[in-house]
Design brief:
The structure holds two protein chains of two kinds.
Chain A lengths: L18 H9 L8 H27 L14 H12 L2 H11 L5 H26 L26 H34 L2 H10 L7 H34 L11 H27 L8 H32 L2 H12 L3 H13 L7 H4 L2 H28 L14 H24 L5 H11 L8 H12 L1
Helix pairs in contact in A: 1-16, 2-15, 3-5, 3-9, 3-14, 4-5, 4-8, 5-6, 5-9, 5-15, 6-7, 6-8, 8-9, 9-10, 9-14, 10-11, 10-12, 11-12, 11-14, 12-14
Chain B lengths: L6 E7 L2 H13 L6 E3 L7 H5 L6 H27 L12 H27 L20 E6 L5 H14 L3 E6 L1
Helix pairs in contact in B: 3-4
The chains are: A mainly alpha, B alpha+beta.
Chain lengths: ~475, ~180
């Protein structure tokens, strides 16, 4: 990984840092008392989490009848939220795994926070299929375990069961990958701490010493986990798309779904990373580690994936027309012009039109535009899932069963509640763990930071001086 | 992880380049390095220390293969022997439908197996305290350690000379 990048690339670590300063800058936020902004954000998040607990309790006590789902529209906000969260949960592993394999060093600035975000997002996603079951206490039925009913096994041919395996595997592997990366950094925190704090971080750091052989194994492990996670991350949203694509509902039964869903997942995941990193870098003063170069790189990914998603939307429309199949044509006419036309407009404008602003370098490097855009994309991707799920179901084969769906307060509360769960976990993470991978940043300081020592290092220095003048 | 305590003479270096040169120098003077500790993986260090490539990825392959077989054979057994059911007019042994779960379990077994193996061979686990030489090794110091248990003063002086010549910023003794 220490291969030299290029002397003309923008440095990924700025401010003439020494190794000790890197430790100091990244670890010290975990050692200070939190600021007012954090406390306020935490109170809001925990309140939203309380709403979640209440709404789950209400759903279980009253039953799924407390939601507005009906015979026609069996999937509403619940599955929309599920797919939205799962999509968001794709950026972390993409950044840490695929960008590791592609040797993209800018991932070191954002991978830790993005992976944490992934894990929290998958936790939020997992809630919805479970509470959607209605009888939550029978949730273990989804696992194939020897039971007294035969044993009657689960249906291994069902995409819904594939989803159970895909998401639980994805969660487990992401967690292992993330935590293993954290262990050396927890050791750094441990060695700076005293008393109880040292005991806690000693427990968390598993007795890491930094021996040469351990680092060698650590790198071997990271590389193979990255290699395994790369097809895994692509498989997860592919399988989520199978939940729809293997059905016989016009508008769902399409082969374009897997790549279209994966692109959308990367798109929304990066948007959420931007939302969080723009705030985190400011509050924790990490601007020299999460630089404009990092933000610009992520905005490029958003532009590419947003455009892929746009092409997918247009392809769907074209194929619906070109197929000559009446039901397919109706399904798409209904999406664009039907009772939920406003969600289609929201989806198109937030996901396809607005990211085009990132063709301009100035916009890609603007913090304000990045933040606003990241919110737009989050909203747009939620609409996309709502369009696919609720709009499609609302117009059934039989006009007599056509229906319209609006959520109840319970469903809205569940959505707001998972946002609370997500931000509560993220805020705790930002106070207790180094939000930037300390050891990884140190490892690239001399190959991709402003302490560059590779070939033509002097020319590099001269070029930077010339730029400064 | 031996129970007896060891006397360790160690030197701290400020930069990975000085460390790499020092390791070369130690190899040239046939000094027996006990271990090298660094705050991040230093590339080019492993061959100098004569560390063989890790076999963790081979273990990962084996775990993955176990996962593949477990998933595929189990689903095959369930749907052809234990409780055959026809789904959508497809054959009992509908291989394409088994692929997603087979893939997921391959990844799951390989990942869990490798991570557990990694911590086991490194002697790490939640709550374990392995002896460390200096708190700054996880921050910004690079450390070469020699085992000097039972060594005489002359041997220790030789090592101290080595440290002073190779640019160590600090030399210390510690019993671990």
């Amino acid at each position: 990984m220490s291969a030299v990048v290029s002397q003309i690339r923008e440095p990924l670590i700025q401010g003439g840092k020494t190794y000790h300063q890197i430790t100091e800058d990244i670890v010290s936020p975990t050692e200070r008392a939190p600021g007012l902004a954090w406390v306020v954000a935490f109170i809001i998040s925990v309140s939203a989490l309380a709403v979640y607990v209440f709404c789950v309790a209400w759903t279980i006590w009253v039953g799924i009848g407390s939601w507005n789902l009906n015979r026609t529209i069996g999937w509403g906000w619940d599955i929309t939220n599920f797919v939205w969260w799962i999509g968001i949960g794709h950026a972390g592993t993409l950044i840490s795994a695929i960008l590791l394999l592609f040797r993209q060093k800018w991932r070191t600035g954002v991978n830790r926070a993005a992976e944490a975000m992934t894990i929290f997002a998958v936790m939020c996603a997992g809630q919805f299929p479970l509470i959607h079951m209605g009888r939550l206490w029978l949730g273990f039925f989804i696992f194939p375990y020897p039971n007294t009913r035969g044993p009657l096994w689960v249906n291994f041919n069902s995409p819904l069961l594939w989803d159970v395996f895909a998401i639980s595997t994805y969660f487990t592997v992401s967690l292992l990958f993330w935590y293993t990366g954290l262990v050396p950094d927890f050791a750094t925190v441990r060695d700076r701490a005293k008393g109880l704090r040292r005991k806690i971080y000693n427990f968390l750091s598993f007795g890491w010493t930094g021996a040469a052989k351990h680092w060698q194994r650590f790198e071997a492990l990271s590389l193979v986990l990255a290699g395994l996670s790369t097809p895994l991350v692509l498989s997860v949203h592919t399988i989520v798309s199978f939940d729809f694509a293997t059905s016989v509902i016009p508008g769902w039964h399409t082969t374009i779904f897997p790549p279209y869903f994966v692109a959308g997942a990367i798109f929304s995941g990066f948007a959420m990373v931007q939302t969080l990193m723009v705030i985190t870098r400011k509050v924790l003063k990490l601007e020299q580690y999460v630089t404009l170069a990092h933000i610009e790189s992520m905005n490029k990914v958003i532009l590419v994936t947003g455009t892929i998603v746009g092409v997918a939307y247009l392809t769907e429309l074209f194929i619906a027309w070109y197929s000559g199949y009446l039901y397919e044509q109706f399904a798409f006419a209904n999406r664009v012009l039907g009772p939920y036309w406003w969600s289609y407009v929201g989806m198109m404008s937030c996901n396809v039109l607005s990211p085009q602003i990132f063709w301009w370098k100035k916009m890609r490097r603007s913090i304000f535009v990045t933040f606003v855009m990241s919110i737009f994309v989050n909203i747009g991707m939620w609409f996309e899932r709502f369009v696919i799920i609720a709009t499609t179901l609302a117009r059934d084969y039989l006009p007599s069963s056509w229906s319209y769906y609006t959520p109840t307060w319970v469903e809205i509360g569940l959505f707001i509640g998972t946002l609370g769960l997500f931000f509560t976990l993220y805020l705790i993470f930002a106070r207790t763990a180094p939000v930037v991978a300390v050891a990884e940043v140190k490892a690239i300081l001399k190959s991709a930071g402003d302490q560059y020592t590779g070939p033509d290092a002097h020319a590099h220095e001269a070029a930077h001086k010339a730029k400064a003048h | 992880m031996s129970k007896e305590s060891k006397d360790v003479l160690y030197g701290l270096f400020d930069d990975e380049q000085i460390l790499l040169n020092a390791v070369d120098r130690a190899n040239d003077s046939h000094l027996d390095i006990m271990d090298v500790y660094t705050p991040f993986p230093v590339h080019g260090l492993d061959p100098k220390l004569g560390l063989a490539e890790s076999r963790l990825h081979i273990a990962g392959f084996v775990y993955g293969a176990i996962g593949t077989l477990t998933a595929f054979l189990f689903m095959t057994w369930v749907f052809t022997r234990d409780w055959p059911i026809i789904f959508g007019g497809k054959p009992y042994w509908s291989v394409p439908a088994f692929i997603p779960i087979t893939f997921e379990l391959t990844v799951l077994f390989a990942s869990i197996g490798m991570v557990v193996s990694f911590y086991t061979v490194c002697g790490m686990a939640p709550g374990i305290t392995n002896p460390t030489l200096d708190d700054r090794i996880t921050d910004d110091k690079f450390c070469i350690a020699f085992d000097v248990t039972g060594a005489d003063e002359a041997a220790k002086d030789k090592l101290k000379d080595f440290f002073s010549q190779s640019g160590a910023s600090e030399v210390n003794m510690k019993t671990i």
